[in-house]
Design brief:
The protein has helices at 40-49, 78-88, 106-119, 146-154, 164-171, 182-194, 239-252, 257-278, 292-300; strands spanning 25-35, 53-64, 74-76, 97-100, 125-128, 133-134, 137-138, 159-160, 199-205, 211-218, 223-230. It is of the alpha/beta class. It binds 3-hydroxy-5-(hydroxymethyl)-2-methylisonicotinaldehyde. 3-hydroxy-5-(hydroxymethyl)-2-methylisonicotinaldehyde (PXL) is lined by residues 31, 33, 38-39, 62, 65-67, 102, 131, 139, 238, 240-241.
């Protein structure tokens, strides 16, 4: 991985070390959608493959994700979440990151918020993807005031990763379709930072038709960096989770916000291209698996 000292010199592998550097541990709190690559079936392989231990709390088990399938099963696991964390008490577990995505109810948001308080230690990165909306619309399964719950959860995070729709819903800015003016994106990033998180990665950004990417804003450093690729037409499910998982994996491996954003954009777009070329049903998620070896090589630099 990419360990550097304050002068930017590589310190791994460090010849002075007789034991390997401490492995990072990430807690991923998402649902298990059994089919349709998203949430934990994406986060677990990506975070593990990039060298971190990936501990999980499944919040629900669904036969598929809710985007475009009829008649899916939904086993809510809200009651199991706190007992899982309680059981860990005696194990003295420390987490380098806690990463949350799709949460099914206000109650789950409240429980996860309490878990942040319990598990946050020095050096724990709290990463929240407020999964709830896209293309200007809140997903039909959520009540209209759900953005308020996600906004409160984002206030407790170190890094948040909304798309433009989610960002607008949480900040009260009117949603518009792109291409966006730079000032419009700057204002949205400011509003998002105002929710409380130090770092913001905003997806779905484009200034010119035919491109698409994400903005990485660090409020403390006063920086905004962009990563763009050519637009691949079509709407592919699960790509937000692919994106978020790579960004979290990069951040825990010591990359900066702008680099994490670049890794996430490139990995997600390459996965979309593979699935598009294969003609895969867009509900089935994207072929990220074929990109994992390359991601690992790129992160090892
Ligand atoms: O990819 C986000 C996601 C995760 N989990 C479930 C979903 C969705 C998006 O629709 O339905 C269950």
């Amino acid at each position: 991985m990419h360990y550097k000292d304050c002068q930017g010199n590589s310190i791994y592998p460090d010849p002075r070390l007789t034991v390997p550097m401490q492995q990072k541990r990430v807690l991923a709190i998402h649902d298990v959608s059994c089919f349709g690559r998203c949430s934990l079936t994406v986060a677990l392989p990506i975070i593990s493959a990039t060298g971190s231990e990936c501990t999980v709390i499944p919040t629900a088990v669904l036969s598929t994700h809710t985007g475009g399938f009829e008649g899916y099963t939904y086993r809510d696991l809200t009651e199991d979440i706190l007992p899982i964390v309680e059981h860990w008490k005696g194990l003295d577990l420390r987490f380098d990151a806690v990463y949350t995505g799709f949460l099914g109810s206000f109650e789950q948001i409240g429980i996860v918020s309490g878990i942040f308080d319990r598990l946050k230690a020095q050096g724990t990165l709290i990463a929240v993807d407020p999964v709830m909306a896209d293309n200007g619309k809140l997903y039909g399964i959520f009540p209209e005031d759900f953005p308020r719950g996600m906004r409160d959860l984002c206030a407790k995070a170190d890094v948040i990763m909304p798309n433009i729709t989610e960002a607008c819903l949480m900040t009260g800015k009117e949603y518009v379709e792109g291409p966006y003016a730079r000032k419009w994106i700057d204002d949205l990033l400011e509003r998002l930072s105002g929710l409380g998180a130090r770092q913001v990665i905003l997806t779905g950004v484009f200034f010119e038709t035919g491109t698409l990417g994400a903005a990485a804003h660090d409020a403390a450093a006063g920086t905004t960096d962009y990563a763009f690729r050519d637009l691949v037409p079509g709407y592919y499910h699960g790509t937000g989770d692919v994106f978020g998982s790579v960004a979290v994996a990069a951040l825990v491996n010591g990359f900066g916000l702008a680099e994490a954003n670049r890794f996430a954009v490139d990995f997600t777009v390459d996965s979309i291209i593979r699935s598009r070329e294969a003609g895969t049903d867009v509900r089935f998620g994207v072929n990220f698996e074929a990109g994992i070896a390359g991601l690992l090589r790129d992160m090892e630099g």
